[in-house]
Design goal:
Helix content is 69%, strand content 8%. With 313 residues, the protein is an alpha+beta fold. It folds into 2 domains: 198 residues, Multidrug efflux transporter AcrB transmembrane fold (Up-down Bundle); 87 residues, Alpha-Beta Plaits, CATH 3.30.70. It has a 4-stranded antiparallel sheet with strand order 2-3-1-4. It starts with a helix and ends with a helix.
Length: 313
């Protein structure tokens, strides 16, 4: 006769995650495809770190209308120019690529002249607002292209090393789910980031790398719990094992991810500039990273076993 304790042990928990594996798997696949198609059509809005150009940050003592600043900048005729305000309405970032010359020396001369024109416009037309030019950053087109190539290669090598690590840490049936989970998080985060019109630069790429590490940690915790549960319930099907393991560590996942998400959300709401963009990427990535650890990485073990069974049949 079964006791209450035995009945409790055999129950995998409150939520049946495996039951909806098809639904959430379809949602994840659709989100990844939509993100890839959107990135291919729309293209990534690279910052000056990757496409080259100049970025000037200026703060005025009082409020300045962004339309007036934009109109004055466009009258300089130095090429395509973009202006973004952040924080209060008295601090701006002015970005432009400038024109290219026939030689590198000529390009540098044109760039220096363009920077001088922008500074002259700020100090002249807006002198009454007491401008403070806080920084001027310039990246050449060749350097930007090299940074972009190395940045995305670093993400690829990171995923490759993770694949090897998971294979050694666990076994072959866990590795594909972990890597697919991380690629899923990075692609969807990048797609949403581009959708809202934000620029992708070196700090944002660093944020995506951080998300890969955060998601990997969460996935490893899930996998460890699955392996422990599998050893304890050797006669139970894998669906039972995965459900029980996820339910057992669900509280830990919610607390950990919720804490980091809340901190990142505060930075996004109250910080400005690049910090706000990094925090936005973290918020999106943490949400999808937590989701994928439960609904992508773990259930993928069942899919892999089914595929292996069909291959043998």
């Amino acid at each position: 006769m079964k006791t209450a304790q035995n009945t409790k042990e055999e129950s995998f928990g409150k939520f049946d995650f495996v039951k909806n594996i098809g639904l959430f798997g379809g949602i994840s696949l659709a989100l990844v495809i939509i993100s890839l198609v959107y990135l291919a059509i729309k293209g990534i809005n690279y910052g000056i770190d990757f496409k080259g150009g100049t970025e000037i940050q200026v703060k005025f003592a009082d409020t300045v209308e962004i339309d007036n600043l934009r109109k004055s900048a466009e009258n300089l005729h130095i090429g395509e120019i973009g202006i973004q305000s952040f924080g209060e309405s008295n601090e701006f970032i002015i970005r432009f690529q400038g024109k290219t010359g026939n030689t590198d020396k000529e390009t540098n001369e044109i760039l220096n002249q363009s920077i001088a024109k922008v500074k002259g416009m700020i100090d002249g037309e807006f002198a009454a607002h007491k401008p403070d030019i806080r920084r001027v950053d310039t990246v050449g087109p060749q350097v930007g292209a090299e940074l972009k190539k190395n940045g995305f290669l670093s993400v690829f090598y990171c995923l490759l090393v993770i694949l090897i690590y998971i294979s050694l840490r666990f076994d072959y049936k866990y590795s594909p789910g972990a890597v697919i989970c991380l690629a899923h998080d990075a692609i969807i985060t990048l797609g949403i980031f581009v959708l809202v019109g934000k620029e992708v630069n070196v700090p944002i790429l660093a944020a995506i790398m951080t998300l890969i590490g955060f998601s990997l940690n969460d996935t490893i915790v899930v996998f460890d719990r699955i392996r422990e549960t599998e050893d304890h319930y050797k006669n139970k099907p894998m669906s039972f094992v995965i459900n029980k393991a996820i339910n057992d560590m669900l509280g830990r996942t919610i607390i950990t991810s919720g804490t980091v998400f809340t901190s990142s959300l505060c930075l996004y709401l109250f910080a400005g500039g690049t910090v706000s963009d990094i925090a936005f990427a973290l918020c999106v990535g943490i949400f999808f990273g937590t989701y994928s650890s439960i609904y992508v990485a773990a259930p993928f073990i069942i899919i892999f076993e089914k595929l292996k069974y069909l291959a043998k049949a």
